[in-house]
Write a structure and sequence with these properties.
The complex is a heterodimer of chains A (501) and B (329). Chain A has 501 residues and is of the alpha/beta class. Chain A is 34% helix and 27% strand. Chain A has a 6-stranded mixed β-sheet, sandwiched between helices. Chain A has a 6-stranded mixed β-sheet with strand order 18-21-22-15-23-24, sandwiched between helices. A 4-stranded antiparallel β-sheet of chain A has the order 2-1-4-5, with helices on one face. In chain A, α4 (119-132) crosses α5 (149-162) and α14 packs across α15. The N and C termini of chain A lie far apart (55 Å). By secondary structure, chain B is mainly α. Chain B has a single domain (2-311), classed as ABC transporter involved in vitamin B12 uptake, BtuC, CATH 1.10.3470. Chain B has a two-stranded antiparallel ribbon. In chain B, strands 2-3 form a two-stranded antiparallel sheet. Classes of the chains: A alpha/beta (501), B mainly alpha (329). The A-B interface holds A 18-24, 45, 221-222, 305, 307, 326-328, 330-332, 337, 339, 344-351, 355, 358-360, 362-363, 366, 368-371, 390, 392, 402, 405, 413 and B 175, 179-181, 184-185, 187-188, 191-192, 194-202, 254, 258-259, 312, 315-316, 319, 322, 324-329.
Chain lengths: 501, 329
């Protein structure tokens, strides 16, 4: 390495870590310079979070050394990490929702005056920091639970700054932010970089990384496979480094040319959620649903699936009118919905793979008190093979699987129900590039076999790459319909911003 | 081998039972008389019946604090109906039915309103107790001696009837829980209520049914108690909810829902009863036993929460020296 060592704030070398005799880090090196934004990327299970946990003192590395400012550092616990000025902003935000913004910022080190909390000083200091992160309009006395996710994220950053942090780790910070909010976050990150704070930035969104990172370190299977500058590497090159084989980012195509009507929705409304939605998806078609987060896409699907009890309108499956008042009705009509949040709505994490997959086909699987184990075996092996799910056993708990494999279990569960219409709400969120590509393949394959697919995503490239037609949403209204031959980024974005065709 | 025994719940429980028996060997020979052991199992059977209902409820992620009061209501109204009609069977039916009805009320409020189970069943605990006092004016209702056969008698003079009733309930409930769609729904609802709803499971009905079953079992228990005591006692059943919850927890039912077995709860009840009986024989003062029980409950949950870490520790010890394997996909 040719950079002068004075620039280096953190050097981790030869970090090894094993869990239950399985080594997950095989000697990772990571170097972070003062005042840089350094992206740390890799597939799920590559060891990013383990490395970060070692840095944050949440777990202890088995071997290897950590140097901070050129001095050997012992990070044995979270307090040590704090002392060295390391803050980690986790994907799941950790604010106390019933406490005020100021209290959250100073949680754990509130300023004291004669042994009591000095509220005035705390709120005054909090104000200064909030202004600095662009939350000028948020009162320090607001409860954190009332803020939007983006604002909460900023409060987390404010908390890190209040703790005189020199190294901030951001784990998937834009996962639940809109594009505009993400831009704002980048601005602030750049500003603090200018002030000499170093940022370790973890993200699955490679476009972002090209936009914001000064350096990129790639991990794969517990090894560091390289550190590059964004200018030295292409998108596909980066993915190839992550997955360990040549990668070309083409979207597979089903070659849809038209088919019978599978699902038609008319005059579909739900008070305060969405109005007058109408669309049709045909056999073999991938119908994309695009819109910003909160634009009503998910809510419409929940309505169709019988979860939103206030939704009303007409639903036709295969040309026949159906009445859906609960998810059971929807499944019986041949509709399946793979929900947006796999942990909250898709899976029972404590239960086994088998339990989860068989949940949608209980009627075929258990009759009275007789359990058809043959049917179970056949169903499981069919979908596990088809989706290339990596398992030790179908009786291992779902929570022991990686994010990508969990997502595939959700898909397996809904495919087992053999639906005519498959609604996929953000099926690729938070999973790595390799698994994403497999899911694209699967969607195309299913369409080719005649399944009608409604594909919801906030990522424009995949919507444009996979969909045959696209419905665009804005604030609960359907603002545009784009056909295959007219798919154009600017058009879709205009509709998504609320411009009606 | 050790690890297998550990991860297999039944094995773990049996190990604890054996350990307790060995410890109480020090309590003297009286503990091991067949009379005492049968008595331990009989009391365990009575407690288990309620704890089974609690297991269903806790698996859905709820709690039923009203079971003790339902026992009292069932016993009191059973006795009242017998005194009125002179028919034992009519009395027993009335006792079970009224507890079932109150269980249904619990379930209906819990599944169709947002009021949490803790509050609903706490309220029912009060109201049902009041209902028991109301009819009997606070006094026990005496019953003819012949009625005592059910609770005090034994099949061929050997196996007490409560044990037989418990075994039948255990078999039926186990089949219901492990071999039916309904059983899967219970686990699914407790494991993740939203995922269960998205999967097409009738969530409200499932939750309601758990409280209904808890009511039925408390009702049966109340009838057996009125027989054992030759009277309907409105004060009966105090603290039964605590014993039932303890048995379930010690038996491996997770308070967060979605995890638990009927057999586990039975062994949990057995462990608690062995402990009580053993301490009695060791002449440990009664009040100490409360403290001891508290410690056992907390320890059981602690071990349960750390089972993963403990089994990893065992794993590490056993795997020492073996070559390291590749990371999991």
């Amino acid at each position: 390495m040719n950079e002068s060592s004075a620039d280096v704030i953190l050097r981790m070398s030869g970090i090894k870590k094993s869990f239950a005799s399985v080594e997950v880090l095989h000697g990772v090196d990571f170097t972070l310079k003062r005042g840089e934004i350094h992206a740390l990327i890799g597939e799920n299970g590559a060891g990013k979070s383990t490395l970060i946990k070692c840095l944050g003192g949440i777990i202890r590395a088995d071997e290897g050394t950590v140097q901070i400012d050129g001095q050997p550092a012992q990070i044995g616990g979270i307090e040590d990490a704090e002392r060295y000025g390391i803050s980690i902003i986790h994907q799941e935000l950790s604010l106390v929702s019933h406490m005020t913004v100021a209290e959250n910022i100073y949680l754990g080190h509130m300023p004291l005056k004669r042994g009591f909390i000095d509220n005035r000083a705390m709120e005054k200091n909090a104000r200064v920091i909030l202004d600095a992160v662009g939350l000028e309009k948020i009162a320090v006395s607001r409860e954190c639970g009332e803020l939007t996710v983006a604002q909460q994220q900023m409060v987390e950053i404010a908390r890190a700054l209040a703790a005189k942090t020199r190294i901030i780790v951001m784990d998937e910070p834009t996962a639940s932010l809109t594009e505009r909010e993400a831009e704002r976050l980048f601005e602030i990150a750049r500003r603090y970089r200018g002030e000499g704070i170093s940022i370790i930035y973890i993200s699955h969104k490679l476009e972002e990384i090209f936009k914001i990172a000064d350096n990129i370190t790639v991990l794969r299977d517990g090894w560091s496979v390289g550190a590059k500058k964004p200018s030295e590497v292409t998108y596909d090159g980066l993915v190839s480094m992550m997955v360990g084989r040549e990668y070309t980012g083409h979207y597979p195509r089903s070659g849809y040319t038209g088919g019978e009507e599978a699902l038609r929705v008319e005059n579909f409304s739900s008070p305060k959620m969405f109005q007058n939605i109408g669309f049709t998806v045909h056999k073999g078609e991938v119908l994309g649903f695009y819109g910003l987060i909160g634009s009503g896409r998910t809510e419409v699907m929940r309505g169709i699936f019988g979860i939103d009890e206030n939704a009303s309108g007409e639903i036709y499956v295969g040309g026949k009118r159906v009445v859906i008042s609960n998810p059971g009705d929807a499944i019986a009509s041949g509709i399946a919905l793979s929900p947006e949040s796999r942990k909250e709505h898709g899976l029972i994490l404590e239960q086994t793979v088998s339990f989860n997959v068989m949940l949608t086909v209980l009627k075929k699987f258990i009759k009275g008190i007789s359990i058809d184990e043959n049917y179970e075996r056949q169903t499981l092996s069919a979908y596990i093979e088809r989706l290339k799910i990596k398992l030790k056993s179908v009786f291992q708990p779902v929570k022991s699987l990686s994010g990508g494999n969990q997502q595939k279990i959700v898909l397996a569960k809904w495919l087992a129900a053999s639906p005519d219409v498959l609604i996929l709400d953000e099926p690729t969120r938070g999973i790595d590039v390799g698994a994403k590509h497999e899911i694209y393949q699967l969607i195309t394959e299913l369409a080719r076999q005649g399944m009608a697919i409604v594909f919801i995503s906030s990522e424009l490239p995949e919507i444009m790459g996979l969909s045959d037609n696209i419905v665009v949403f804005h604030e609960g209204r359907q603002t545009g319909f784009v056909t295959r031959d007219k798919i154009h980024e600017a058009t879709i974005l205009r509709y998504a911003m609320g411009e009606v065709r | 081998m050790i690890k297998q025994l550990w991860s297999n719940n039944s094995g773990r429980f049996l190990a604890i039972v054996i350990l307790l028996v060995i410890i109480f060997a020090g309590a003297g020979q009286d503990f091991f008389t067949s009379k005492n052991l049968i008595n331990v199992v009989r009391v365990t059977s009575m407690n288990s019946l309620i704890a089974f209902g609690m297991t269903f409820v806790i698996i859905t992620g709820g709690i039923d604090l009203s079971v003790g009061s339902l026992v009292a209501v069932s016993g009191t109204y059973c006795a009242a109906a017998i005194m009125m009609t002179g028919n034992f069977w009519a009395g027993m039916l009335v006792g079970v039915l009224i507890a079932t009805l109150l269980g249904l009320v619990n379930g209906a409020i819990i599944s169709y309103t947002p009021i949490p189970p803790f509050i609903v069943t706490l309220a029912m605990m009060q109201s049902a107790r009041g209902l028991a006092y109301l009819y009997s004016q606070g006094k026990p209702i005496r019953l003819p001696n012949e009625f005592g056969t059910y609770g005090n008698g034994a099949l061929r003079g050997v196996i007490p009837y409560p044990i037989i009733i418990m075994l039948i309930a255990m078999a039926l409930l186990s089949v219901l829980l492990y071999r039916t769609r309904y059983g899967r729904s219970l686990y699914a609802v407790g494991g993740n209520i939203d995922a269960a709803r998205y999967s097409g499971i009738k969530v409200k009905r499932t939750i309601l049914s758990a409280y209904l079953i808890s009511g039925i079992l408390a009702g049966i228990n109340g009838v057996i108690w009125s027989s054992r005591l030759y009277s309907g006692q409105p004060t009966q059943g105090a603290n039964f909810e605590v014993d039932a919850i303890a048995a379930a927890i010690v038996g491996g039912v997770s308070m967060t829902g979605g995890v638990g077995t009927i057999f586990g709860t039975f062994v949990g009840a057995l462990i608690m009863q062995l402990l009580t009986s053993g301490l009695n024989f060791m002449n440990v003062p009664f009040y100490f036993q409360y403290i001891f029980k508290g410690i056992v409950i907390v320890s059981a949950v602690f071990v349960d929460l750390n089972r993963h870490n403990i089994s990893m520790l065992l794993n590490n010890l056993l795997a020492r020296g073996k070559p390291k394997t590749a990371p999991e996909p």
